[in-house]
Every structure is written in structure tokens, then in C-alpha cells.
Amino acid sequence: MFGVGCLLMDKAFLRRLSEPKLENPVFIQGLPGFGNVGRIAAHLAIKFCDAKLFAELYSPSFPDYISISSKGIAHLPRYEFYYAPMEKNNLVIMTGEIQPSFDDVVAHYEVCEDVMDFVESLGCRFIITMGGIPITEEKAQVYIAATSPRLATEFMEKGAVIYSKGRIVGGTGLTLAMAKERKLEGVSLLGTTTGFRADREAGFLVFKFLMKALGKEIKEGLPENTATEE
Predict the structure, then answer these.
(1) How would residue 9 be classed by pLDDT, with cut points 50, 70 and 90?
(2) Which CATH number is 194's domain given?
């Protein structure tokens, strides 16, 4: 239960639901944005890996509205952290329904700092952010931006296209750049989308590339028990 001080929330509040033991986990982030690509890919990863919710981040930097579930239940805006022990990598996957307002630059920096402080405390040394970029192409693509030329080349060899001379807005880009400033390694996986609707195809393409990069190649379509999220 929240105390009164937490409800007033003059600063970010991290609510831990469990204390998973994770060895050198990889942090994966997928938030709303163009085509909702990052959030869709994150939800696919959570379901495919059977990841478990273990922490929630609440912040006064989030928008001043609440979310209502399909069952009519209200809750404050939040980021959710899931963990998944895997054969090759332990994963920490973060997603949420919102980002700070794009007009509030300070809020974006504050929330990304809070996220980075937490995942670094968990031992995450490699960061993967996922999102969409509004590029119209005949062929769907996954673009790559990275914290080093070596990583950019490595992921290009896995099938991504280097994203050059562009911008990555919101938490997808800021988290990657902050990781670099903290001497961590990381990449952004960006799916091409028109950005006018929830792009399930682009989200699945990014998810599929993510799993391939983690050594869990998805050769066909979605598993029957895996659904996308808007």
C-alpha cells in the first residue's frame, strides 16, 4: 500500500514487488511512440519469455491522467519492470502506457535518469531500447543506432540497417545516450512505421530481431498463445 507521502509524490517512487536474483541482466525497454512499436515489441518479449512483474516506477513527471483497465480499474501512470531468466541472458524488460509530455524536456531527462539508476543497480551493463521511426519504405526494416561503431556493425551484420543522421525522440533515444554517458553499452532497435496507428507488424519485426540478437530466433509467426498489445 502507498503511504500519504507516496501519493503526494514530489519525486519518483519505485515500488518493488519481489527481489529476483539476476546475473548480468540485459535491460530491454519498449515504450509508446511512433506506431507504438516499442511497446508492442516489449509486450511480445514479456509474453514469449514468460517474464514476471517485479517493480513499478511512479513519477510526478508522468502526465496528469490515470489509466483505466479493461475491467474498469484505475491506476496511476507507471513504468513496469519484468524479469525473465533465460539460457544465455537474464532479461529485465520495461514498458509502460505513457511517456512524459514531449514538451517537457526536463521531465524526460528526470525519468530516464530514474530508470537508469534502477537498472544499473540491478547490474545491467547492456541496454536495448526499442521504438518506431516514421519512414515510409516498400520493405519493412529494422534500423540500428548504438553506443559504439563496433556494436552498430555487429547488429548490421545480424540484418539491421544503420540509422544515420537522424533523431530518436523520447525515452527510446535518451535512455541509449544516457547509457553511453555512464560507460554502458547498448543499441536502439527501430522499426519503420507510418506512425498513424498501432503498427503490430513493425512491433513484431522488432521483437523478432530482438530475439534473434539474443539467440532465440523466431522463424515463423507469433506463437498461438502470444498476443500483441496496443
Answers:
(1) low
(2) 3.40.50.10900
229 in a structural domain: no
CA angle 130, 132, 138 (to 5 degrees): 130
Task: Report how many domains make up the chain.
Answer: 1
Cell of 224: 498461438
Q: What is the pTM of this model?
A: 0.90
Q: How far apart are CA 160 and CA 154, in angstroms?
A: 9
Radius of gyration of the chain (CA): 17
Is the CB of residue 127 less than 8 Å from the CB of residue 203?
A: no
Distance CA 78, CA 62 (A): 8
Nearest alpha-carbon partner for 178 in 108, 80, 103:
108
Instruction: State the distance between the two ends of the chain, measured CA to CA, in whole angstroms.
Output: 28
For residue 29, which phi and psi values (nearest 5 degrees)? -125, 130
* CA separation for the pair 112, 175 (Å, rounded): 6
